[in-house]
Specification:
The structure holds two protein chains of two kinds.
Chain A (H helix, E strand, L loop, with lengths): L1 H27 L17 H10 L6 H15 L5 H15 L1 H4 L4 H27 L5 H30 L1
Chain B lengths: L1 H39 L3 H38 L1 H36 L8 E10 L7 E4 L12 E3 L4 E8 L4 E5 L6 E7 L3 E6 L6 E4 L12 E4 L11 E9 L2 E6 L8 E6 L4
Antiparallel strand pairs in B: 1-2, 1-12, 2-5, 3-4, 3-12, 4-5, 6-7, 6-9, 7-8, 8-11, 9-10, 10-11
Classes of the chains: A mainly alpha, B alpha+beta.
Chain lengths: 168, 277
């Protein structure tokens, strides 16, 4: 009996890892690395959503992602609903594309992430423009795109390890 | 029994799918609807934000520690590596500061004598609360950060926040144990300032770039370059005389100010409590 309980507990912990990783990334975006606008972490929270929606959507419920997005909105101080909407659309969109992306080479996945990142940043730009009536600093905008694309393979290395650990 | 269960499942499956889709559409519409509402809502949204930031303060405290530890270690190593040049620089700086100290004593004495002579009312004392930056919540459209001091430490909304180099921003939301600070570079930041020594009044407005704009300057000319920009104290929110930066350039008719604060180095700040009552 205790063995069964511990097995269930281990299974529960493993199954919680995708959701937990999203929270880790959300908090990581707010680590005070320096108050410069050129920080690499701003949009890194979309990586776990992109990844888990493709590989383990069963462990990554849509409502959970939406609530995480709302929480991010509340803490980050931007327009409320922005990240809730983006996280939700990303989660739904990536699950619908998982059949196309699963089993493909890493380059294809990387390219898909680049496209998703551009769409996400366009939505951020659009919401910001409509809410504040101002344009973004384009140097910072380009910086965010490049830095997220460059760091993607490194993050995926960790994500793959977690995925294998969950499947064991 | 099993067959009847299957039949029930078959009947309710389309309903379940339909309900699921409607929920998704509802969530999307809900998100879109709250974006403009939250922008103009001044009561509910800030209260929830403050409550959540307070709730997550322990986590922010924990995650910020390793970062500062790493930063401090690098800083220590740099100090050791550049010890000789650092001692030389500090000795020179110390000599200059000793001279300024003499000037300061003389001016304080002169100022006090003149105040006594003219019977000028006492300036209110400025109290301060030291706090550490525990989270950076900036994005493409927002320049804010979270500090680990709140109303329990005497922090109130609107108070000025300074670093050792100068003005950093103002408290925009104050929780019990934490507060959100709006940086002077944020597009919603507007601060009454005085440009010295030309003594022109203006408004320092952020636009999310590193260099803020000076608005409503009466006399825009190139001589203003390198002039100091200080808080004027108008409006009674900020104490007068807090240094902010220097006039750095003229771009397409707008005057830009380079803040003294080095954003990448700020770790501790002071929240100034100032009241004219």
């Amino acid at each position: 009996m205790p063995n069964l309980i511990s097995q269930n507990l281990v299974k529960f912990i493993k199954n919680s890892l995708p959701g937990f990783s999203l929270f880790i990334f959300i908090f990581f975006t707010m680590v005070p690395l320096g108050l410069s606008p050129y920080k690499f972490s701003t949009y890194i929270a979309i990586v776990p959503i992109f990844y888990w929606s493709i590989y383990r959507p069963d462990l990554f419920p849509i409502y959970f992602v939406f609530i995480a997005g709302l929480l991010y909105d509340f803490i980050s101080g931007g327009p409320l609903g922005q990240w809730g909407l983006i996280f939700l659309l990303l989660r739904i969109g990536m699950e619908s594309q998982r059949r196309i992306l699963i089993g493909k080479k890493f380059n294809v996945e990387w390219l898909a992430f680049t496209l998703v990142l551009l769409i996400v940043l366009f939505i951020v730009f659009l919401i910001g423009f409509l809410t504040y009536g101002t344009l973004v600093n384009f140097t910072e905008f380009i910086f965010q795109i490049i830095i997220n694309i460059v760091f993607y393979p490194l993050i995926i290395l960790v994500m793959n390890k977690i995925k294998i650990f969950i499947s064991e | 029994m099993k067959e009847s269960q299957n039949q029930i499942t078959k009947i309710f499956l389309p309903v379940k799918l339909l309900a699921g889709r409607f929920t998704l559409i509802f969530l999307i519409l809900f998100s879109v609807a709250i974006i403009p509402i939250s922008r103009f809502d001044q009561n509910i949204t800030p209260s929830v934000r403050v409550f959540l930031i307070d709730a997550f303060t322990p986590i922010f405290n924990v995650i910020s520690h390793p970062v500062y530890f790493a930063k401090n270690t690098v800083s220590e190593l740099n100090t050791i590596f550049y010890l000789r040049s650092e001692v030389k620089r500090l000795t020179e700086e110390n000599e200059k500061l000793m001279n300024w100290q003499q000037v300061g004593y003389r001016l304080t004495y002169e100022n006090n004598s003149l105040r006594e002579l003219l019977n000028v009312s006492e300036e209110p004392a400025i109290q301060n609360v030291s706090a550490r930056i525990i989270a950076d919540t900036s994005g493409l459209f927002v320049r804010t950060f979270i500090i680990n001091a709140g109303s329990a430490n005497g922090v109130k909304k609107g108070q000025a926040v300074v670093s050792s180099r100068g003005l950093v921003g103002r408290v925009s939301e104050a929780g019990i144990r934490s507060s959100r600070v709006l940086q002077i570079t944020d597009m919603n930041s507007k601060i009454p300032v005085i440009v010295s020594p030309s003594n022109q009044r203006a408004i320092l407005a952020g636009d999310n770039s590193d260099n803020s704009k000076l608005l409503f300057l009466t006399d825009k000319n190139e001589d203003l370059i390198n002039n100091y920009v200080l808080t004027s104290g108008h409006g009674g929110l900020f104490p007068p005389g807090i240094r902010i930066g220097t006039v750095s350039q003229f771009v397409n008719g707008s005057v830009r100010v380079r803040p003294f604060v080095n954003w990448s180095q700020v770790e501790y700040v002071k929240v100034l409590s100032f009241s004219k009552d």
